[in-house]
Specification:
Blueprint (H helix, E strand, L loop, with lengths): L1 H15 L17 E2 L4 E4 L6 E4 L7 E7 L4 H17 L4 E7 L4 H10 L5 E4 L2 H10 L7 E5 L4 E6 L5 H16 L9
């Protein structure tokens, strides 16, 4: 059911905006959004095992990026995400890279070769299958932008690379960063 709802949200965003993920600057209304599906995952940290919940980030704008170490386009978008994270982290922006299938050992090896400045999350195959199912992850990369109130507000069903997609994401991030946590954009 949540998969269908996420698909409809993505479809409504594309169909109701003049750009794939445009703003309401042309007088268009934002569609109704759904609350995040909360989860708790391990944080990749070589020193210890710690976890975080997605709901811990209420009050922040979050880019939830589903990816894998074996995915070429996923790797290509990491430098762009590092730049966005550095640019907006002090304004309440977070990026959570959710590995859909990699083990801690695979992620540790990956992180020795590639610099990732934001949090990488992982878990057991059983937990990841449930999360992937609830977020409609059938292929990677797949990203969702979550507003400060904990609602999924944008979906990006492919790699966010190149000037066009990075610009669209940048515009969306700014729009939702400029909304205070107690303002209602649902």
């Amino acid at each position: 059911m949540k998969l269908i709802i996420l698909f409809l949200i993505n479809l409504s965003i594309v169909l109701t905006n003049s750009t794939p993920y445009g703003s309401d600057s042309n007088g268009q209304q934002e569609p109704e959004y759904i609350q995040i599906y909360d989860f708790e995952l391990n944080i990749l940290d070589s020193d210890s095992v710690s976890t975080l919940k997605l709901s811990d980030f209420n009050g922040s704008v979050v880019l939830l990026n589903f990816w894998a170490t074996w995915c070429g386009p996923c790797i290509v978008e990491i430098p762009e995400f590092n730049d966005l994270y550095a640019k907006y982290k002090d304004r309440g922006f977070e990026i959570l890279g959710v590995s859909v299938s990699d083990s801690k050992e695979q992620l540790d090896k990956f992180q020795k070769k590639f610099d990732v400045d934001y949090k990488i999350l992982y878990s057991t195959p059983e937990i990841m299958n449930e999360i992937n199912r609830n977020y409609g992850v059938n292929s990677v990369p797949l990203s969702y932008l979550i507003n400060r109130q904990g609602y999924v507000v944008r979906g990006y069903p492919s790699a966010i690379i190149g000037e066009y997609w990075t610009s669209a994401l940048n515009t969306d991030i700014l729009k939702f960063l400029d909304t205070t946590p107690n303002q209602s954009i649902k």
